[in-house]
Amino acid sequence: MSNTNDHYYIEQVLKGNTDAYAYLVQKYQDMVYGLALKMLRNEQDAEELAQDTFVKAYRSLSNYEGKSKFSTWLYRITYNSCVTFLRKRKLQINSLDDSKLSDQDEAKIQSQLESVNKEELTKYLQKAMDKLPGDDQVLITFYYYEEQSMDDIAGITNLSVSNVKVKIHRARKKMYVVLKEMLQEEVYSFL
After folding, report:
1. 2-89 has which fold?
2. CATH class of 98-190
3. What is the C-alpha separation between 123 and 100, in angstroms, rounded?
4. What digits encode the pLDDT tens for the residues 146-169?
5. What is the spatial distance between Cα 21 and Cα 14, in angstroms, rounded to a whole number?
6. What percent of the chain has pLDDT over 90?
7. Selection from 71, 70, 82, 95 nearest residue 38 by Cα
8. Burial of 145 (0-12, 13-18, 19+ CB in 10 A)
9. How far apart are CA 6 and CA 4, in angstroms?
């Protein structure tokens, strides 16, 4: 039904009722801002980029073909705008080396995390997410938190499905490295 509502408002905007666009902005502003904030890690930049995204989407609305959900199309615009913004700023993001973690280490961390209560687990996972580069955070969020399909993520990011799978796998490995370091620090703080 929500997709139908989107199409109704899109048609209204295309027919000249520009006020109808306010519905789409209101419905998706948190989604667009959230994605921009995850990637840019700066509230002001995220706000500015979110506004620019809605302006770009408005100007390109006639190009929206309806083959994907409107939210997917809007995610794609937001994601691409963030990538362009980051390239312009030439932001250096430290990458974590996934070769630091063996399969045994990953299993050990998984076991430790299973013994942690849900509230603590959420805290650990959020801290680990915050330490990932923005694009890794976005992929993890799309797949695990927003339950987007690999096909949808590929459509949003303009990556192949196999590339999305590889990047999500690597992002998970990076999270395990961060979690391993956090758990080791906690053990040392108890000693």
Report:
1. Rna Polymerase Sigma Factor; Chain: A (1.10.1740)
2. mainly alpha
3. 23
4. 888 899 888 888 889 889 999 999
5. 10
6. 29
7. 82
8. exposed
9. 5
